[in-house]
Amino acid sequence: MHAAPRHDAGPTRTDRALRLIRRSARRTISTLVCVTVAAGTLAAGTVAGPATPAHAATEGVTLSVTPAAAGILRPGEDLQVTVTVVNATDVAVPAGQIDLDLNRTVLDTRTKIDGWLDVSGTEANARTGPRIGRTGSPEVAAGGTVDVPVTVPAATVGLQGTRGGFGPRGLTAVLASGGTTVSTGRGAVVWSPGTDPAATPVAAVMPLTVPPSASDLIDAEALATYTGTTGTLTRQLDAVVGRPVAVGIDPRILASIRILGTDAPASALGWLERLKTIPNETFALAWADADVAVQAQAGAATLLAPTDATYALRPGRFAAPGASPSPSPTRTPEESPAPTASPAAAGAGRGSATAGLATPSPGESGSPQPTPTPGAPAASPVPSLADLTAWDYTMSGFAWPLAGTAVTSDLGVFAASGTTTTILSSDDVRSASSARVGAVGNAGDTTVLVTDADVSALVDQALSAETDQGFGIALARLSATLAADAREADGHVVVAALERGWAASNGRLGQLLDAIGALPYSDTAPLSAALGSPAVEVQVVDHPEDAARVRRVADSLSLEAQVAAFAKAVERPELITGQQRLLLLATLSTRWRETADGAATTQDGYVAQADELLSSVAITTRQNTVISDTTSLLINVSNALDQPVTVRLSITAGSGRIRVDDSAVVTVPAHGSASARPPITSISNGDVVVTARLTTEDGSVQVGDSAPVELFIRAGFEAVVTTLFVAAVALLFGFGLYRSIRKRRRARARQLAGLPEETDD
């Protein structure tokens, strides 16, 4: 299997896969015209005909040659071939004739098969074997496609006797019109006389995943769709259940269903129960099938894994065993009908696209809980992260990077993460000796499960076929490849790896596996058979990830580390870091490699969300007036998180006008603000700008951005005001005393003089 495209550039298939596809019939939206023309009267062994037409192949007209019966021909059977003419030009291809040649020499290796099918690498007039059939070809309209069936009697095939050894034979179809060759196509048929060699075992491994999303968990609506009758998870399970296919399971799917508890869609619960019963070999993929190679190349010491899911748990969803159903709960006034994302868990309104999941309050394990009505069942203990992801896998310790993305140093990171087996494409390894690389290799202390790149590409081509004819082309080529392997008779197991996103195809996996099992020279096998085969020493052929992508992922890893440090300031950091890790893993999903725009948008969205989260605690004060020699500044701090945050506020003086005596610790309530009062001493009057900085309580990590605060220092003003106030009080008291004494003296003088007492008007 070849590498999925990097999201920064390039097509969606590797060069080898593209080459295979170019050999297949390109389909158009035109109506398929099937012309049944009987083969002409055939002479014994060859067909007489006119002189070989001039070779002037028309650009844009292609032929594909597809033998029937999965490309197998047995003694006594007529050779039935469909020649597909695809006219991708703007003009019609005139009616003409198609000649069919058979090269009776065995193509006994894959290299010979590749060389035969590569029409561009073959001289136009090279001998292609005796002509065994000819039929008329109708006009092919511009942009049209025509299938022309050709039947060659068994007696004319001429593979009995000394020419009848088992193996692939080459077929050539030549379309000529007006004495000029229009196009040439190649195919192969496997002659199976009944004395076939031992069957080549074919093991298959597939990823069980869902389309990518930027959310931390898969929401209930998406799960209902994916596990519906025609949903992608249902179709994937239908294709492999009971068949010898090892299944790599994305644990995000398991956790997303289980975390919904009683709110999980019935179809999702049924699908999960069905998954438990399949007899297939299973192993765990990375969460969200995250790209393990890019993590290693971006500097991660170990592969990322979920840390906590408490933020998304609602205890009310988990009824105690045996409890009877109760009426629907009523919501508290504070609880909105739909979950809301906050910076504490979802940041900038992103990331928590999980229907029914919300950010928990500080004192809870989940979002605000409904107030149960009387008679509601008691809640059972909420599941842990281990409970949510638990599965009885038959194999463990696997890492599966995309083909064409790994380098040697990645294996060390995988091993440090507990990986014992790494799945690599045969294009990504080479033998460290002269021994042929089979299904298993040893790269140092790491076991490498080697998938067959050629076979995997053909499997992908078959699964991606839009028509039965396209499927038949890929199957015939696969049949010839496996026949060549059978002739070598070395007994090695061929491992076919399905592409990520294979389930978006036309649901042909079951049909393909059945066809492989029906081939007389191949058979399906469990993955354990491949893992048990002899190992050879291998070296990794470095195919690094795109440098720009690695830089972006490295930036995201650094940003997540900043969020983890920031979370130390809150009461329950796991409510932040748990979701932040899941959001990051979602952006690393290998499925994003299918869409360049989606990958870039998701990565940018994660950065924006994390940046907003880091700015959710901020200093809001920008000015302060100081009128005392010794005082405390009043600095307001806001908190947009869903839980309280405790921070230390420190002041850095920008001049000698003040001296900062100490920092101040303040606890800011959720969605609120509070004031910190760091003590200072003013040295002289004037205006000065100081820098206010928030850190965690222990001072180890900065929280939010530093903020400038302008101080207007009027330290002597307090003394002047106090003096004036004291003087005013003294004067007022003295004046009152003076009036009282004077009044008494006057009253006494009047009394002595016999005058009447004065009265106040």
TrEMBL record:
One matching Pfam family: DUF6049
Disordered: annotated segments: 315-381
UniProt KW keywords: Membrane, Transmembrane, Transmembrane helix
Top-level taxon of the source organism: Bacteria
Family annotation (InterPro entries): DUF6049
Transmembrane segments: 719-738
Compositional bias (Low complexity): 331-368
Protein name: Sortase
This protein's record includes keyword Transmembrane helix: yes
